[in-house]
Write a structure and sequence with these properties.
It is a single chain. With about 500 residues, the protein is an alpha+beta fold. The protein is about 45% helix and about 15% strand. The protein has a 5-stranded mixed sheet with strand order 4-3-12-7-8. Strands 5, 6, 9, 10 and 11 form a 5-stranded antiparallel sheet that branches. A hairpin with a 2-residue loop joins strand 9 and strand 10. It is elongated and about 90 Å long. The longest helix is centred in the first third of the chain and has 28 residues. The two termini are about 50 Å apart. It binds ligand MTE and molybdenum atom. The site of ligand MTE has 18 residues, from strand 7.
Length: about 500
């Protein structure tokens, strides 16, 4: 069709008038070394960001535009309907990715995938920040920022010329055509910042800190846009690489890998070396991650743990209105199965005692009646599961600050450990550790009500934790006891909680 079009005199005139690129003078020259290195770092990091990102998506393979995540309201999914005849948890919903594609592949490996994703994100963002600074301090921005509205007809003209297989003038060393400008501008100045913003807005501490913005660009909208940005990147990479190959491979590779405008083989050789490096890293990423999972967790914590620490300082203040409460709320986790717990359920928790001990001046037990006699606090907040789903619910219960007043932690106490009646998925008691500062927050409560009704067994009866700047797995359900401690190294595998021990999650997890 494009070839036929080019037979038309009007189109010929159009192409003569708009040859595909403008002729505004430029003040940069070629592709300097910093730009070539940054291009390589960018592509190298993006591969791991994309692979780990797909793994994260596979842990809740559904995307929604609404904030409730009700099954059936997805606009995109790669999972079947939620079964109606049994409890189907978010963990049941996770799907498997092959190890060559996801990092680290297998099923429900989101803990490790997140360390890869976030660590590479940080490096990629730094690389991008340097790139912005360099672009604008060297005139290289003139290459990719359209400077006249003629970029649109020029882009159309270039598109017709490419499609007709009689390519427009290839002048990449000197300037880009309109289509290239639009593609690079979109990628560098729209898609990349959007990826960062929509990534951060999925975090409880950030979403809950940003008021109306966090409620509008809610987690599911952010996830959906994050996914569309991924689709753009994949589309861009495919077209970009194809064009590099078909519009003059040797000179193109010389531009970006050797820094000259010749037709010699040196760019191809450097490119081949770079790709060998990429291939080796690609092949090693999954086995290294699976064989040295704890080291991956530690490295991730070292690289980005500090950033999570910073996010923990922010006051998670977002509250929702009654009309925003989610009708459906995904259940998650491993249900308690002990005789002790079943007996408590049978007696409607009449004999339930919350034990509190450890480094406190007043160790004591609270009966369910005593707890319910204390002033009740209600809050409508959003729950953020690490797997990707979220839901808004009204919680009613006792602020932990109130309990802290009663038991009086000793100065040495730095953490509160929550022990569940339930075991974790791989056996052994489910527990999680929280910093004392977080426990003093006014929205941190021991909830015994959900949406105005007594908390159900599925959602954590008799008591479950709400701590609004952390992800869902730290909201321990079916709480049996709380212990105040100075350190948590001696508990479980010493990582600060059941999922931290078994699934390599981070101990501080506000993002
Ligand atoms: N005891 C216990 N508490 C738990 C879990 C668990 O497996 N065991 N799962 C956690 C996870 S991963 C999430 S997302 C929330 C889910 O709470 P919900 O079932 O009320 O949605 O509970 C958290 N609390
Ligand atoms: Mo979760």
């Amino acid at each position: 069709m494009a070839q036929e079009l080019r037979q038309l005199p009007a189109v010929q005139h159009f192409i003569a008038r708009y040859p595909g690129q403008d002729s505004i003078p430029v003040q940069y020259f070629g592709f300097p070394a910093w730009l070539r290195w940054q291009h390589f770092f960018n592509l190298f990091l993006l591969l791991f960001i994309i692979r780990a990102g797909l793994q994260i998506l596979a842990d809740h393979p559904r995307l929604y535009w609404n904030p409730h995540c009700t099954p059936g309201t997805e606009w995109f999914r790669f999972q079947h309907d939620v079964p109606q005849d049994r409890v189907w948890t978010a963990k049941d919903d996770s799907v498997t990715l092959p190890g060559w594609l996801g990092i680290p592949g297998i099923r429900h490996s989101i803990g490790l995938a997140r360390w890869w994703h976030f660590s590479c994100d940080l490096l990629w963002t730094l690389n991008g920040a340097v790139f912005y600074v360099m672009l604008f301090s060297t005139h290289q921005w003139e290459r990719i920022v359209p400077r006249t509205s003629a970029v649109l007809p020029n882009a159309l003209s270039a598109a017709i010329q490419y499609l007709s297989l009689r390519f427009p003038l290839e002048q990449g060393w000197i300037r880009y055509n309109g289509l290239q400008q639009l593609a690079y501008f979109t990628t560098v100045f729209i898609a990349a910042p959007l990826a960062i913003i929509t990534g951060l807005m999925q975090a409880p501490a950030i979403s809950n800190k940003t008021g109306w913005f966090g409620r509008t660009l809610h987690r599911q909208a952010a996830r959906s846009i994050h996914f569309i940005v991924l689709a753009w990147f994949l589309f861009f990479i495919f077209i970009h690489v194809t064009m590099v190959f078909v519009t003059g491979l040797l000179p193109n590779l010389n531009h970006m890998f050797a820094g000259n405008d010749s037709a010699g083989p040196e760019g191809l050789l450097i490119f081949a070396g770079a790709m060998a490096l990429v291939a080796i890293a690609w092949v090693l990423a999954t086995p290294i991650t699976l064989n040295h999972a704890r080291a991956v967790q530690k490295t991730g914590e070292f690289l980005i743990g500090w950033l999570k620490g910073v996010a923990e300082w922010w006051d998670p203040s977002n509250q929702y209105s009654e009309s925003e409460i989610s009708e459906y709320f995904w259940p998650n986790g491993t249900m308690p199965a002990s005789d002790e717990y079943n007996a408590l359920v049978a007696s409607q928790f009449a004999d339930y005692k919350l034990r509190i001990d450890g480094l406190v001046a007043n160790p004591r037990e609270f009966s369910f009646t005593e707890l319910k006699a204390m002033a009740k606090q209600e809050q409508i907040t959003c729950h953020f599961c690490i797997q990707g789903w979220s839901g808004v619910a009204k919680w009613g219960g006792v602020p932990i600050a109130r309990i802290i007043e009663e038991v009086k932690p000793l100065p040495a106490a730095r953490y509160a450990v929550f022990y569940s009646f339930a075991e974790g998925g791989e056996g052994g008691r489910y527990y999680d550790v929280h910093k004392l500062e977080n426990m003093r927050h006014r929205l941190t409560v021991l909830a015994y009500e959900m949406n105005g009704r007594p908390l159900s067994v599925l959602h954590g009866a008799p008591l479950r934790l709400r701590c609004e700047n952390e992800l869902g797995f730290k909201q321990v359900k079916w709480i049996a006891a709380i212990e105040f401690v100075a350190d948590f190294k001696h508990l479980g595998n010493g990582q600060g909680g059941y999922n931290e021990d078994h699934e390599f999650y981070g101990y501080r997890i506000p993002i």
